[in-house]
Amino acid sequence: MPKITTTELKKLNCESVYRLLYDRKQLTKQKICNLLELSRPTVTNCLEELLEQKKICRGVQSRDTGGRPAVTYCFNENAKVSIGVEVMAEKINIASVDLYGHIKQSRSVKLAFVNSESYFQQAADWIKTFIGTLEEDSANILGITISFQGILAEDNEHIIFSKLLGSHLFTRSDFSRYFTSPVFLAHDSEMAAGAELWHYRELRNAIYLSVNPYMGSGIIVNGAILHTPNLSSGILEHMVTHPEGRLCYCGKRGCADSCCSINALEREAGCDLPEFMRLLRDGDERAGRVWQSYLHELAILIDNARMVLPGDVILGGLLAEYLKEEDTEALKKEVLSLTAIPQADFEILIGHYGNRATLVGSALKNITKYLEREKLR
Questions:
Q1: Are residues 121 and 186 in the same domain?
Q2: 28: CATH
Q3: Does residue 115 sit within a domain?
Q4: 34, 54, 75 - which closes a domain
Q5: At what angle do helices 29-36 and 6-24 cross, to 10 degrees?
Q6: Distance between CA atoms of residues 153 and 161, nearest Å
Q7: Is residue 14 part of a domain?
Q8: Given pLDDT bands bounded at 50, 70 and 90, which one contains residue 153?
Q9: Mean pLDDT of the 324-348 span
Q10: Does the pTM of the predicted model rise above 0.90?
């Protein structure tokens, strides 16, 4: 076995210190020495190098030892930033996200999607203006991931299906030519599922349902987002649950989207989601009946999906911002009343990021690569 060199050992030690600070966020020098079982001079050298690279910073003084205050060292979550962009039919959302997956700044602009040079120019100008307000060195921007309401081709260069945008005849270069930072395309629901997996890191197998005006979905297998050519992470929203049902925008009848989306709920309720949820929480009888019918439709979709992937379920998107534990309990009870195998237990979790999951997940695409490269995850 070849002997490790002094340079290699120093690099390994610095990686260990950096990884520890990422996990613990803030520690004193002595605490780092104790946890890693490294000498004080070794840790001092690593901290000085990481400080010089601006990967860490000095924090507040600690009195944990009860004696003289000790300087703490913090992981610098702002050392790098990633940009998440969500392109929708009627608007664009954007956010900058730090290395812990926290949104630093976000904005939206009304800009109807049109497959034209003028649209791409306007969108790029707006994105660049947003990035300019961050006052970030361009070297600190890990990349820009642009998510669409559509399915990405295997080459990651163009969209192959996007009925909601009205066109799929555009490519990554239509955006990337305007930027110096790396630009990537992504499927919105897959990115949203990735954000929720970032939060619920203990999950192994799960189904993610993004319940927005239109539905989306994602599949988590063995602790990772499933990604397949042509169908991304799955499109459960176009699973037919009522063959003779309402016409879906995809062209089929009775898709889950036509029964389980927020558009479907609002259509049955006769009012928008905030007003409906207010009525429901106030005990309105009609709202209660509509809600029970809606949960039944969701339960059909969940039961069907769980026959393929028997895992937990994450309810995300805009609906997540209104859900309570009593709702997930009622939904689970409804699923168990329908399923052929009620012994197969599972949990229904409320999405942590709500309707911002796509933005966070898009940015995390680049952050995850950075953390892996730096051996932090």
A1: yes
A2: 1.10.10.10
A3: yes
A4: 75
A5: 110
A6: 9
A7: yes
A8: confident
A9: 94
A10: yes
Q: Are 173 and 124 in contact (CB under 8 A)?
A: no
Contact present, 219 and 193 (Cβ < 8 Å) = yes
Q: What is the pLDDT of residues 119-144, one digit of tens each?
A: 999 999 999 999 999 988 889 999 99
User: Residue 88 maps to which CATH number?
Assistant: 3.30.420.40
Q: Is 155 helix (H, G, I), strand (E, B) or coil?
A: coil
CA angle, 124 as apex, 169 and 189 as ends, to 5°?
A: 60
Do 187 and 212 have their domain in common? no
- Lookup: tokens for 102: 């926290």
pLDDT(1) > 60: no
Answer whether residue 104 shows pLDDT above 90.
yes
Rounded CA-CA distance 320/130 in Å is 28
- Give the domain-ending residue among 58, 75, 92: 75
Note the pLDDT tens digit of each residue in 2-42: 678 989 999 999 999 999 999 999 999 999 999 999 999 99
- Kindly state the tokens that stand for 195: 């954000």
Q: What is the pLDDT of residue 16?
A: 97
Q: Which residue range(s) make up the domain with 120?
A: 81-192+357-373
Asked if residue 168 and residue 57 are part of one domain, the reply reads no
Name the nearest CA neighbour of 71 among 100, 98, 43: 43
Which amino acid does the sequence have at 301?
Answer: L
